[in-house]
Amino acid sequence: MLIAYENVGKTFETLEGDLTAVRDVNLAVRRGEFVTLVGPSGCGKSTLLNMAAGLFAPTVGTVRYDGEEVAPYNQRVGYMTQNDHLLPWRDARDNVLVPLEIRGMGRGEAQDRVDELLEQLGLKGFERAYPSQLSGGMKKRTALARLLAYDPEALLMDEPFGALDAQLRLKMQIEILRLARTLRKTVVFVTHDLDEAVSLADRTAVFSARPGTIIRVVDVPLGEERDLLTLRRDSAYRDLTAELWDHLSPTVDHAEG
Ligand SMILES: Nc1ncnc2c1ncn2[C@@H]1O[C@H](COP(=O)(O)OP(=O)(O)OP(=O)(O)O)[C@@H](O)[C@H]1O
Ligand SMILES: [Mg+2]
Prior knowledge:
This protein is an alpha/beta fold. It has helices at 45-52, 92-103, 107-120, 136-149, 166-182, 194-200, 235-248, and strands spanning 3-14, 17-29, 34-38, 60-65, 68-69, 77-80, 154-158, 186-190, 203-207, 214-219.
């Protein structure tokens, strides 16, 4: 197990009193596995990623990474939030360079690595463009390149493609699936989109409304070589999305926002 939640609960102290975001969460993510998390808004999905990243500890239970309790901060994971957080005053290449600078990698080696990543993600020719000059999809790909520049073992992704239109989202899904397979990454991926949850996953965890807990973990045996362009016509795929919807629909009335 690379990432394991053991009886995890998290309660925040707020001005209005204690707020329990998640409770009794048990989930073990194997090395190399792609797990998607779905559940109503406010059920604690981001809270769970934050704990795996070591941003804060659970109130009860344990979050482990590679067998050890996660301590602040977990340097072995890369975290991509819904917001790109690209630095507006740096061009694409210099944005991707940030983690390598922090790591102290020599300028020449770092530049080569960055250019390789930008090329891999289809950004060749845009190295010198600033975020304001990049399209939404290009910004996402730049953020993804920066995430991969760390070469983290595991990727925590919080609705990374939520703001993209359907076509771009599909393109990014194909990209992340290809990268996860070829680079052998472990991925925990939060999404609101049930199609996305099934398309990408080896397993999907479905959460209840807050305090969020796992209602069901669904195996997604669609194979490593699945073709996202034709998957929607696959009856196994359709059955799986319908199954997820059946688990999720009773929670709709309790969603926040
Ligand atoms: N640092 C914090 N302090 C206080 N309350 C918090 C904090 N972080 C999260 N919460 C609360 O915990 C609950 C779960 O939040 P979280 O962001 O994890 O939900 P989520 O499942 O990611 O929701 P969404 O799908 O809308 O992103 C919410 O009610 C939120 O207001
Ligand atoms: Mg969230």
